[in-house]
Design a protein that fits this description.
The structure is a single chain. Helices cover about 30% and strands about 25% of the residues. It is an alpha/beta fold. It has helices at about 45-55, 70-75, 90-100, 130-140, 165-175, 195-205, 260-275, 275-285, and strands at about 20, 35-40, 60-65, 85, 105-120, 125-130, 155-160, 190, 210-215, 220-225, 225-230, 235, 250-260. The strands form two sheets. Strands 1, 2, 3, 4, 5, 7, 8, 9, 10 and 13 form a ten-stranded mixed beta sheet that branches.
């Protein structure tokens, strides 16, 4: 459905180092906690998956924390977590670091997401091209009137650089998918610690624009239609618009495991890929496998 290089969540989450531990009392016997950390986009999803998993496996415990995809991958490579969640694929330098440490990593795709571009509901701008969005986040376009909006400065908000969503947006929007590009976010960009912080700022500022995974969408912000450059048509992020020739900012969501401890992680990952797990994926607004 999507090129894996191209890459939905509700709830209240605060802080980069959010830690939510979900446990159910063991019905006899000993339990061993499975530690999962990483993507802010995936935190609420994995929390719900963990809760459902523990309901059917009462002797098992799962601990879920956020902090960003980069943080999750780093903790996996440092032996501090069992599963790293990521809204981007691992970078070449991360694979090489794992190889240098003698660690064999396995990637598990668990769901599909879309990156929604969001503005204040009162903003008259309803659609953008990828090039216009690129120019906003590189600082070339600085006033809403340049894209058909009000005569007011644009406040562009991005996730911080340890976020997989930040990396995906840089690769697919700021650099327009060109691997040889070295384009960067503009110097006027404001960086936010979490998707919740982005939603809070956009809903309170008519001049703001940012991006979040679809699960973060609420009635307090508006998603823009984005142009598919292959056909010139505009689409909103939705399950119905998930085809290759429709909404252009689709991506996979993945988990990474250290093969040395894969036996511990396998039951949870198998559950996520099962019909019961994928039902949770759909309930949280993501696209199931």
């Amino acid at each position: 459905m999507f090129n894996r290089k191209k890459s939905f969540i509700t709830g209240f989450i605060t802080g980069v180092s959010l830690l939510t531990i979900l446990t159910l009392s063991a019905c006899g016997g000993k339990s061993q906690t499975l530690n999962v950390s990483g993507s802010d986009t995936m935190v609420q999803l994995v929390q719900n998956l963990a809760k459902k998993f523990m309901e059917v496996n009462p002797t098992k415990m799962v601990s879920v924390s956020g902090g960003g995809s980069g943080t999750g991958i780093a903790t996996l490579l440092n032996g501090q977590t069992d599963i790293a969640t990521a809204s981007r694929t691992m970078k070449d330098k991360e694979w090489k670091l794992a190889e240098g440490k003698g660690i064999k990593i396995t990637e598990h795709i668990v769901a599909i997401d879309m990156l929604a571009v969001v503005v204040h509901p009162d903003n008259p701008v309803k659609q953008l091209t990828l090039k216009q969005l690129r120019d906003i986040f590189t600082g070339k376009i600085t006033n809403w009137k340049e894209v058909g909006g009000n005569d007011s400065p644009i406040l562009a908000l991005s996730r911080e650089n340890n976020s997989g969503t930040h990396v995906y947006f840089k690769e697919e929007v700021v650099r327009l998918g060109k691997k040889d590009s070295d384009a960067e976010y503009g110097t006027s960009i404001t960086f936010a610690n979490s998707s919740q912080q982005i939603i809070d700022q956009v809903k309170g500022n008519i001049s703001a624009i940012s991006y979040v995974g679809m699960g973060w969408l609420t009635d307090e912000v508006t998603s823009l239609k984005m142009e598919n450059p292959d056909n010139g048509k505009y689409f909103l992020p939705s399950i119905a618009n998930s085809g290759k020739d429709k909404y252009p900012l689709g991506r996979t969501l993945q988990m990474y495991t250290n093969d040395a401890f894969l036996e511990k992680a396998t039951p949870f990952i198998e559950f996520i890929k099962s019909e019961a797990g994928q039902a949770v994926v759909r309930e949280l607004g993501f696209i199931s496998l």
